[in-house]
Design brief:
Elements (H helix, E strand, L loop, with lengths): L1 H21 L14 E7 L3 E3 L3 E10 L10 E8 L4 E8 L4 E7 L7 E8 L12 E8 L15 E2 L14 E5 L3 E2 L4 E8 L9 E9 L5 E3 L24 E8 L10 E5 L8 E4 L5 E6 L4 E8 L6 E4 L14 E3 L3 H20 L4 E3 L18 E4 L9 H8 L3 E6 L2 E8 L4 E2 L5 E4 L2 E2 L3 H5 L6 E13 L2 E11 L13 E9 L4 E3 L19 E10 L4 E7 L5 E11 L4 E10 L1
Parallel strand pairs: 2-8, 11-36, 27-30
Antiparallel strand pairs: 1-3, 3-6, 4-5, 4-7, 7-8, 9-14, 10-12, 12-34, 13-33, 13-35, 14-21, 15-18, 15-20, 16-17, 16-19, 19-31, 22-32, 23-29, 24-25, 25-26, 27-28, 29-30, 35-36
Amino acid sequence: MHHKVKIIVLATAVMLLWNELAAQYPESISSVDCPREKISALLSQENVFTGEILWFKIYCSSILFPGEELSSLAFIELVSSENTSILRKKILLKHGEGTGEFKIPENLPTGIYYILAYTNWMKNFGEESFFRKEMIIVNPYQPFSNKYDSLSFVEKHDETSVTDINANKLKIIPDKNKYSTREHVTMKIETVSLPGKTITGRLSVSVYRKEPKMIFSAKKSKEKELIKAPENITFMPDYHGILLSGKLTDNSGHATPFAFVTASSPGKGTDIKSHITDRNGNFHFLLEPKEGEKEIVITLPAGDMKISLEESFWNGFRGPPDSLVLILNREAVSFLKEKYACYQLLDRFKKQYFIKNTPVENVPDTNVFYSKPHQLIKLGNYIDLDSLREYFYELVPAVKFAQRNGEIEISVLDPLTMTYVEDKPGIFLDGILYDNFSAIADIPVEEIDRIAVLPTSYYYKDFSFGGIIDIHTKKSDFNSVKPLPNMTRFIYPLSHVAEWRFLSLDYSIADPSDRIPDLRFLLHWEPVVRIEKSGEALIQFYTGDVKGIFVVKVVGLSDDGEILQAESEINVY
């Protein structure tokens, strides 16, 4: 019962904010007791070469409503020390977590970079609420000027140290203190629970060669600023979906308030969304939370109007981060030389520790917004006729075509009352509301797959249709007609699709290729680890041929919405 109450309260809070925004008064929305979110992320490494893959796992939790999901989407950026957003991705969040990767460009210069992660809702609280983590990218093929003396700088301490909140709720217990090369490693991750309560949740694990300190600060770090409640709510959360936001303007560039805008997607299904722009011309559509991209057709009130889509990303820092410098002392230079030699040999021997994912196509959405049609006609079940009008004349007596002043008009006869429906019928082609009846009538019949007819008044959200005629071509791609002058058609990126997958090496079975040196500095990356009711999870992997101290980092999210962190080390000799 308590769980249901929390969901109702959270949903009510979000919907109240949304309703106020839709009421065209965003500047008056109160932020008192707004639910807040916190993001934490685990990086596969914190020191990478250009050309390498940096994997990451994002965890998002609502501070006011732990265990409930406020945002379905997170944004992550790789930002240079010059405050340029180099790489940007949208990450779909399921149960508060999402996975992705960055392929580091070959041409980046050596330097300090930042990982910046946030949700659309967190933008209201400023970038002080964002997750940020500094890291080093090394370009071994470009010279680097090491012009600083490390003795004159203060060591930069990691703000996400394991001494943070909830760090003492996780323990990493290896089965040994030291391991030889290519030896099997078993680690137990154990939660420290309260009496009578076991912590369960989802974790991610990274094991990589320990790196010497290379990032220093020219001054003592600023005290962390207190995150204040925003005065106004400007950004709405991607709540149970992905927000598509934009602005409608006239041909002079002025905002068009209180205008009716619709959005649909070509495909095998049929649906339509609508929104009335606010006083500033802003509109919002909530799309289904999926990976990949989606084709969108937005229909405007008039052909001389224009839309501009809202920029989803923060694009670097608004306020400059701490002044940090990269200093390579002897230990750091030695470490990078060793890593570069191993990196070259890995490339030469083609020893891969990652593979490219096979693309998976999204299952087409075949759902329709209306109830069961009165008639559903598959043209392939009937003899060939010359035109679409003939099929309607012979098979659909409720739909009448008439030609007036050179234009085709369509009316719908209600079979129950035997009277024509007063409202204009909703004519859909491949899922798009399309009222150029002449263009529809001219579609070659061999391209048509099916016709669904609902010959009665139908009310759906903001729409009142005098009957529904839903036509689908065989390809369902909305390419049999030209878009109307008031239509804007584009591909919208929903969220990142993982391109690369970490490959764990297994030395339990003898293989001739095992003679190839295993010179990985990243031993293990496991983004999905589940802690069940036992409060424990096992991690297993093999060491490689690189010796030294390896860091084991664990970050996760409990089922109660708490961010969990732990860190340990193992020795490979």
